[in-house]
């Protein structure tokens, strides 16, 4: 009984673009646990007992929260399902502050990538172009590696394999268009013309594993390390950097700021503008802009 209800709930959420692979595995295990106790409705005691089987506090909290989400949905249709207390397992997910690259660090990474070996191979051109494209567009690395030659159009990049399965068009600055065109011209001869935009040393589509191996080399040779109290630089932090720089260029008027934020959210491929807020990190430039705006406000000008 619970298994069928779980599958229906997952199907409804997947229709909205969520993958939920871990949810499916864990909730089916919970359904089997409940069935072994002769239950076909969610019971708080059973949910707690099942979650306690997880190996770490974080896992117990996550597993329990998934049952709570399911229970809230099912309870609306059938009051026989109990809604477990959401905070039964204490703690909260900690999201480390992302590493925001300075313009100098971005240039350094691209320059180091352009000097990678093997000598005479396409690898340095591929890595430097990938990194330049990420800094210029804020694409997810998975989206960049999934690009095919037909996705590069005069109007921009057609992003097909997105996180939520939706397609979007990402306009490119003329300098970015030129750099990508130069790479495509360079790569056709040694790569033999496969459909993938970014290719490996053997001419096949560049995999994430291949990219990550080269990325770690670039990161080490560029000499970048974690800042005090922060995390080590990641490739995904390039996306955070793009969002932070976009926030720095927001217009002053409040109504235009809202439009700017919505445009950035759409450009990044987020399904909800609230998902974009996590990407907006403070930077020295942004804090200076805030200070200037506060000064104008206290002096009687427009906020």
Give a written overview of the molecule.
- It comes from Eiseniibacteriota bacterium.
- Belongs to the 'phage' integrase family.
- One of its GO terms (molecular function) is DNA binding.
- InterPro entries: DNA_brk_join_enz, Integrase-like_cat_sf, Integrase_catalytic, Tyrosine_recombinase_XerCD.
- The longest helix is centred in the N-terminal third of the chain and has 21 residues, at 57-77.
- This protein has helices spanning 2-14, 21-36, 44-51, 57-77, 103-113, 123-137, 141-145, 174-191, 208-222, 237-248, 254-268, 274-277, 284-298; strands at residues 152-153, 156-159, 168-170.
- It folds into 3 domains: 2-77; 103-222, hpI Integrase, Chain A (Orthogonal Bundle), CATH 1.10.443; 237-298, no CATH class.
- A 3-stranded antiparallel sheet has the order 1-2-3, with no helix packed on it.
- The termini are far apart.
- By secondary structure, the chain is mostly helical.
């Amino acid at each position: 009984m619970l298994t069928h209800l779980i599958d229906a709930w997952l199907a409804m959420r997947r229709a909205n673009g969520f993958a939920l692979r871990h949810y499916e595995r864990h909730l089916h295990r919970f359904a089997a646990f409940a069935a072994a106790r002769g239950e076909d409705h969610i019971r708080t005691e059973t949910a707690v007992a099942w979650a306690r089987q997880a190996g770490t506090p974080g896992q117990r909290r996550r597993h329990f929260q998934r049952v709570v989400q399911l229970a809230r949905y099912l309870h609306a249709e059938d009051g026989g399902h109990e809604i477990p207390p959401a905070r039964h397992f204490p703690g909260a997910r900690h999201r480390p502050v992302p590493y925001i690259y300075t313009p100098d660090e971005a240039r350094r990474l691209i320059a180091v990538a352009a000097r990678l070996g093997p000598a005479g191979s396409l690898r340095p051109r591929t890595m430097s172009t990938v990194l330049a494209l990420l800094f210029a567009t804020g694409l997810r690395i998975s989206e960049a590696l999934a690009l095919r030659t037909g996705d590069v159009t005069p109007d921009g990049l057609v992003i097909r394999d997105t996180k939520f399965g939706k397609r979007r068009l990402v306009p490119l600055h003329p300098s970015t268009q030129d750099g990508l065109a130069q790479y495509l011209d360079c790569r056709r001869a040694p790569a033999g013309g496969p459909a993938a935009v970014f290719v490996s040393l053997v001419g096949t589509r560049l995999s994430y594993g291949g990219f990550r191996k080269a990325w770690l080399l670039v990161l080490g040779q560029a000499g970048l390390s974690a800042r005090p109290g922060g995390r080590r630089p990641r490739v995904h932090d390039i996306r955070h950097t793009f969002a932070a720089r976009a926030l720095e260029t927001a217009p002053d008027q409040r109504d235009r700021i809202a439009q700017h934020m919505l445009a950035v959210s759409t450009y990044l491929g987020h399904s909800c503008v609230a998902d974009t807020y996590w990407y907006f990190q403070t930077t020295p430039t942004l804090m200076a802009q805030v200070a200037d705006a506060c000064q104008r406000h206290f002096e009687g000008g427009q906020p």
